[in-house]
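Budget justification aside, the reviewers requested a transparent look at the raw inputs and outputs of the sequence design task funded under Objective 1. We therefore reproduce one unedited record. The lines immediately below are the structure tokens for a 649-residue chain.
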């Protein structure tokens, strides 16, 4: 697959007489793609039913004539002000019952049918007009579903739709009462019409109620997206995508992924380090100008899997892009430093090493007005090149020399499940017990040993080809995945908290984890403060979460204090009853990898490796040069060798 570059452009922000020059400069820089339109609703339909497509026609022509391919976004993340007069109750409502206001973006409620119809209407108008336009080579629906905490809405529209959703799911209210355990605290309902949303309760709501509301909210996103996709498909053969975000997990991306050809995501490594990665001050200082060494990579691997959701998981994964790549300081994190020189190029190559088809920089030119004035672009507001420009130009030149990066199935798989994110959030059992954090810890542990990883959805039915499969925290294992575990060729490590609950979030009987082929029962669960590690006999500790295991199986790891089992194994199926710290995790992984004949190495702190088909990439994420395998790799350095030849910075 040929790798390409792109940028995000807002022709409606700039005088028309500079478009031609902008387009020529983009092409000259070596960009192939330009995404436009995703926030332009007020200029496309200035008043209800009055369309103005003239400027967009001309913008697409200008860009297309310069040789660029256009990704056209539907503008539904930014309903214009007049929409609110037509649909005063379209606003999403927060958990305290307050409607969210107009004046930024994403203020709509996914359950509002009137708004959904308006979104379909503008999408249809765009698809009709541009569906066969030769320059429109891809589509994007909306923009970053879920960003700014916008999936969950406690509106009247959501309540009505939730009741219908529950009636479909449970058929009878008695079945719902049984499934939720509503006899507890006299919470029984007589009809679906009595059921409210799980906010404003005196203390925590019934977790089954809360989890179903999370499932429903996720389904509403898929319903909203699916409506746009259907309309676009009627008028266009171009691939459809959506730009997902970092650590936004309020809807099931594998479900929306199955609706579209390409998954894309928006990668802001420095912003994410500041506001979405757990880590102490030293970690945040060390990587302030580079970003967390594993956070972006995890998302690359996740979205490769989301991109595969439509066509199944092929050896190299699915089609995916970085739609928005940070090109300099952003404006929205607690602190917004500039990237280390070389980092923009580094992030671009990191994405390609994980299989991205395209990396597109956000944004072409820094906007001197409105919310993102200090957010860098490739150009400054005065159109002079910003530092990211030269780095993009360098990648463009490198891609001319070697445009192909292959991907192949990785030796290690980690299963990731959105329902489990919600289940842990609904019932964390202890502060800091967060599913995404657990998965990131396990992912990081694998990466520190030099391993390359595929992320798989819980709907996976075949684990063949993987030497090591990790299934941490997946709260309710689907039957097909249980079968796949039983038939796996490699070692499978499940736990902690894997298959711990029923689909309704109750404790099952017999007690969990009920994993075929391994005799282990969790007799009780403890959670701890992060500064209370529970030492493990062989070294390291479990933190935050510990399960007490009854077993007749071989004990692989035991508590230092009393020798009680922490990890047990039967053949290739292992169960881990706690949240491992890095030392404990490294031992578990190294042992399993060794059994499977999978080579590991303990990498220097800042080095990460990605084996991309026949090419091996080495990345130095640190602030200082690192001596690695006989080479000195500078900060922000990328070294590769293999089928792409040998390259270095
Ligand atoms: C993204 C968003 C863009 C822009 C950018 C700033 O989340 O899609 O529109 O706001 O962040 O970093």
């Amino acid at each position: 697959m040929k790798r390409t570059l792109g940028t995000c452009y807002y022709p409606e922000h700039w005088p028309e007489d500079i478009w031609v020059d902008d387009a020529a400069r983009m092409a000259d820089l070596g960009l192939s793609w330009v995404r436009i339109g995703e926030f332009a609703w007020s200029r496309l339909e200035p008043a209800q039913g009055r369309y103005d497509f003239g400027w967009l026609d001309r913008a697409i022509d200008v860009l297309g004539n310069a040789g660029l391919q256009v990704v056209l976004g539907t503008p539904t993340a930014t309903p214009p002000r007049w929409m609110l007069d037509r649909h005063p109750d379209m606003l999403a409502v927060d958990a305290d019952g307050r409607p969210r206001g107009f004046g930024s973006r994403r203020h709509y409620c996914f359950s509002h049918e009137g708004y959904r119809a308006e979104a379909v209407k503008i999408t249809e108008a765009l698809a009709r007009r541009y569906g066969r336009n030769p320059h429109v080579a891809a589509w994007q629906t909306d923009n970053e579903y879920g960003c700014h905490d916008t999936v969950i809405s406690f509106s009247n529209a959501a309540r009505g739709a939730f009741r219908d959703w529950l009636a479909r799911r449970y058929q009878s209210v008695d079945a719902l009462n049984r499934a939720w355990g509503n006899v507890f605290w006299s919470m029984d309902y007589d009809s679906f019409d009595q059921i409210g949303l799980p906010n404003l309760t005196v203390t925590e709501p019934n977790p089954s109620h809360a989890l179903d509301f999370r499932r429903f909210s996720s389904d509403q996103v898929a319903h909203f997206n699916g409506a746009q996709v259907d309309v676009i498909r009627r008028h266009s053969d171009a691939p459809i995508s959506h730009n997902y975000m970092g650590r936004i997990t309020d809807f099931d991306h594998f479900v929306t992924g199955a609706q579209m050809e390409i998954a894309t995501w928006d990668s802001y490594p420095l912003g994410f380090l500041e506001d979405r990665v757990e880590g102490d001050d030293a970690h945040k200082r060390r990587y302030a100008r580079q970003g967390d060494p594993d956070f972006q990579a995890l998302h690359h691997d996740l979205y490769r899997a989301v991109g595969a959701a439509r066509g199944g998981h092929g050896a190299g994964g699915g089609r995916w892009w970085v739609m928005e790549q940070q090109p300099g300081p952003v404006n929205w994190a607690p602190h917004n430093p500039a990237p280390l020189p070389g980092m923009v190029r580094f992030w671009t190559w990191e994405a390609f090493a994980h299989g991205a088809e395209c990396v597109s920089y956000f944004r072409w030119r820094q906007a001197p007005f409105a919310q993102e004035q200090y957010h860098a672009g490739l150009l400054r507001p005065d159109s002079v090149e910003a530092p990211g420009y030269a780095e993009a130009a360098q990648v463009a030149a490198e891609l001319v020399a070697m445009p192909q990066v292959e991907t192949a199935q990785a030796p290690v798989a980690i299963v990731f499940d959105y329902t489990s994110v919600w289940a842990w959030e609904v019932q964390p059992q202890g502060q800091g017990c967060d599913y995404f954090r657990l998965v990131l810890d396990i992912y990081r542990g694998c990466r520190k040993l030099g391993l390359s990883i595929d992320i798989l959805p819980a709907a996976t039915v075949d684990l063949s080809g993987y030497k090591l499969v990790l299934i941490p925290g997946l709260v309710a294992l689907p039957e097909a995945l249980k079968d796949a575990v039983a038939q796996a060729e490699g070692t499978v490590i499940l736990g902690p908290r894997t298959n711990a609950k029923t689909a309704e979030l109750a404790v099952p009987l017999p007690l969990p984890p009920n994993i075929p082929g391994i005799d282990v029962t969790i007799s009780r669960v403890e959670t701890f403060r992060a500064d209370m590690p529970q030492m493990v006999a062989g070294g390291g500790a479990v933190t935050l979460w510990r399960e007490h295991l009854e077993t007749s199986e071989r004990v692989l790891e035991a508590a230092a204090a009393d020798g009680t089992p922490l990890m047990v194994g039967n053949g290739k199926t292992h169960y881990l009853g706690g949240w491992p710290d890095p030392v404990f995790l490294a031992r578990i992984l190294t042992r399993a990898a060794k059994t499977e004949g999978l080579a590991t190495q303990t990498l220097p702190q800042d080095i990460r490796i990605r084996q991309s088909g026949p090419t091996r990439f080495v990345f130095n994420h640190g602030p200082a040069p690192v001596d690695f395998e006989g080479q000195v790799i500078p900060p922000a350095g990328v070294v590769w060798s293999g089928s792409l030849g040998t390259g270095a910075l």
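Residues 368 and 381 are 6 Å apart (CA to CA). The mean pLDDT is 97. Computational costs for records of this kind are itemized in the attached budget.
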